[in-house]
Amino acid sequence: MAQTSLIASQRPATELSQAIMETGEATIEAWVQPATLDQTGPARIVTLSRDPAVRNFTLGQDGDRYIVRFRTSDTDPNGTPSLDSPEGAATTELAHVLYTRAADGTVRLYVDGREVATREVTGDLAVWSDEFRLGLANELTRDRTWLGVIRRVAIYDRALSPEEVAQNFAAGE
């Protein structure tokens, strides 16, 4: 089940970045099955970045937690402070992990249709780059390998509502 190869766009994900910058909203959705809970760093599941220190967003796994870093004009270039799930949210079972950012700065993290973390993040997306590439299962520099299976990834240029999150989870992968 372990995968160590990098899957990345060959060109910048310009259309995706620009659409999210225009709305100021985003949703990152993934059906994933971690191979282990020993992943640290956090290991990158989905990332839109240039390198390990500068990114637009990252959904990752750190041990038994999911972590999302989403850069705004008020965060550091790495997107911290991040939004972390509680300990125990990540298991080696198939999971639906979904992150939303609303235009008002409210960010939410859902695991299997349930909201597990929320916070307010100030700042806008003026610092985003439309030159970054999209990568799956690794940072673009190959130093944050995520081990597991990615069954489905969807990225939206709007924040899904809690009802839509529940519908997507109920619909399955």
Report on the structure:
The protein is mainly beta and 173 residues long. 12% of the residues lie in helices and 40% in strands. Strands 1-10-3-4-5-6 form a six-stranded antiparallel beta sheet, with no helix packed on it. A five-stranded antiparallel beta sheet has the order 9-8-7-2-11. The chain is globular and about 35 Å long. The two termini are 18 Å apart.
Strand order in space, largest sheet: 1-10-3-4-5-6
Low-confidence stretches are none
Biggest sheet descriptor: 6 strands, antiparallel
In total, the number of strands is 11
β-strand percent reads 35-45%
Number of helices: 2
Q: Give Rg in angstroms.
A: 14 Å
Helix content: 10-25%
Task: Summarize it.
The chain contains 2 helices and 11 strands.
Key phrases:
173 residues; 6-stranded antiparallel sheet; 5-stranded antiparallel sheet
